[in-house]
From TrEMBL:
InterPro entries linked to this entry: DUF4144 (IPR025284)
Protein name in UniProt: Uncharacterized protein
Domain of life from the UniProt record: Bacteria
Annotated organism of origin: Vibrio genomosp. F10 str. ZF-129
Pfam families: DUF4144
Amino acid sequence: MIQWPCIIKLEGDDELMYVGSKKHLQDECEGLIFSDLDVLIDSVGQGFTIREVGNKGIETEKNNQSLSVSEVTSLIQAHEFSKAEMCLTKIHFLSISEAIQSLTFTD
């Protein structure tokens, strides 16, 4: 079961997408073409494969990827670096949930 909120890491792109709920996921990802390497990362670091299934919309499936706080922090640092708006040394989180919540208002 997905622990919301989440982030989406698209293959080959440092920018992350914040996703607050299943409905937000459906709305945000409608029409996107997903790669096998795109991943939804939930608030406990669990990875999920994402795919569009015709009229059903977006479906997710748990994969064997589990990220640590430091790995999620590194993704967020790369995301912020790509935007060139924040000092990377100031980015530090105590939990994955806190890290994901930090992206709530950055989109």
